[in-house]
Give the backbone structure.
Amino acid sequence: QGSVAGSALVKPAAWCKVMLACTEALADIARSPHARDALSIMHDSSTRSADELSSLKSLGIGFPCKMGDYDECSAATGLLASAGLGSVKEVQMCVLGLLGKSGLPRPEGGGLGGLCLPTSCGPEHLQSEHFRKFLEETLESDMGLTDIGERYLANLKDTVDLSDSTSAAFTCGSHAFKPDNLSVIVAAITIVLLFLLAIATVTEYWFPRLHQMLGKLGPAFSARRNLNRLFDTGRRRSEFRCLDGLRALSMGWVVLGHELAFEGTIGYINPFAVFPPTGALSGWLAQILFSSRYAVDTFFFISGFLVFYSATNYLNNDASGTKNQIDGQWVLGYTLRRWLRLTPTYMFCILLWWKIAPLLGSGPLWFHWKSYVELCNDFWWTNPLYINNLVPFGQGEGRTCFFHGWYLANDFQFYLITPVFLLTYQQSRKWAAALVVFIACTSTVAAFLAAKSSGWSAADLDGGAVAEYDRFGYIMPYFRIPAYLIGILLAMAWLTFHPKLTAQAQLDEMVPGMREKPRQGRIDPFMATVIETVGLSLLLLCVFGGIDADQYKPCAYTMWPQGRVACGSGPEWDTTERAAYASLTKPTWSVGLALLCWVAFQGQAGIVGWLLNHDAWVVPARLSFGMYLLHPLIINVWFQKQTQFFRWSTVDFMLRFFGVLTGTYIAAIVLYLALESPCGYLLKHLRSTGNRTAPPPISLEKPGELSSLLKKAEEQIPGEREGLHKKHSLYHSVEVTPDGTKE
């Protein structure tokens, strides 16, 4: 269904046969008057390489032409059927310049043109010396070519010559995939999940007895239960509501950055309007796009905080009143729970990416899916083991199965070593904090030294320096851990200075709808403003501090910014500055988040806190796992089906962004209802079976506090006092107050 450069070499005899078929087809179609109409369409749908060749010499970041008219070329097949040519049955579009002759994406990006050719002609023919000699001899000899045939072959020769002068390769065909056995199995699993979702929901409303017969599968796959849980905004800890805002905004930021990356991979027909020094990406607002990589550090920061905080609370608040100990059994359960919670949804999305998505389209750009599929064929097993950031080593995220899964691998690896910090924290809080700071600083210094010695750069337009950083630095856990550790450090600080919740906060957790504003903090208002200002300043510094690196034309993948050609950050930054940018910005970003969260947790972050605490972020935050897994699939299926390069305009870019975001949001809801939430419910049921213990009593600091809280609950939720009594057993709690009396 398609072919690309770098295909396996054909045996000499077979190659001569297919070469003869190609040249015979071209000769017949160029001479036959009956094929004039079809050849006119083929010529019209091809680009004119000779006319555009002068533009190539003055442009270093792409070639501003079309890739040919793919749809018009396809229309020529029907006309060829009536021409009666036995050597030409169908045609295909061959695009020049999407790949180099090495089989990798061309360093300059974009494409150089397109040709509508018989299907018997492929990249291996167009790039051969025999084919060039055939074109020269045919055009020079008197072979009875029609006028349109002569023009068609002349343009074909110009395009082939352009391939030689630019070391660009051809990709031909629709690149369509055919389903295999595993594709059928994945499709069947998807249908079964959707069927369970439908049957559980329908029976819950109209056939309750049948719903009961489903056992735990009934409530697990009930759309009503799962939607109520998804949209319930009363289940959040009041102090930490800002984390929902950070998570939701970061997920949108990831989608924004990936949209730009994928569009740039495909190419623009107006690159001067996009890239520096004249394009939109040289402006201040473009730094928001380039800085989207900090969204992943936000995820690491949030994960470190929540994992350490929740694990510490569990270890210190066993229902029996005794502390849980960190031993081998606890670590095994701790690890297994995480693996079971993530892996079913994760692997299902990988199967969709690997076996279903490639079947959803075709076109001149669809060949990118070939490399995605081949990588999963070879390395799918690394993903459930969460080592796909290390195997294959030194290949970067682009050479792994489900490339964005590197984040989950890092996060799981950080999760595995968290018990070391928990155990140290149980022994000594000071030593635990010192250990976290030491490892974070060591990682940062190591990243700086590695970047300086290897010439790495995190500035997106620095070509080869960025490619090397992606391979050996960007996805490596020992360089990405500082953000996670700073999250742990914030959890340690919060547990130290806020060891207990007030009774109001505990009641908020148990009674949905009773949440009030976060309790007022213990920081002086002026000091809280200073902390917030410093935190926001650090965040803005990270976002906009790299603008100097984006004022010159981008470096090609094979170019380095410190070379003789002025590109990327080369004219503005030296090796030390690039190393500092690559190594220091991520910890700086995380420190800024920690300062902002410290005041937001205490309700003292002003309008920023109000924005991050808003209930509008609850649902997107809960869907962020599914959105992260699915958004590259949505982007690639949509973008790779294009038959032309993109044309840049800010309005079009933002409309595509909101389209991708909306599609990802809807797909994540379906994934949540059909798999993520049911798996979580079944896992929770398995964990709770045989381990039913009463919840710990509420700790009250003042006599009479429980009565006043229950009175407030009855006032805010009239008629629910008896329900509260039965559901939450508040009246059955016996607490010892500070003065020794019971209440």
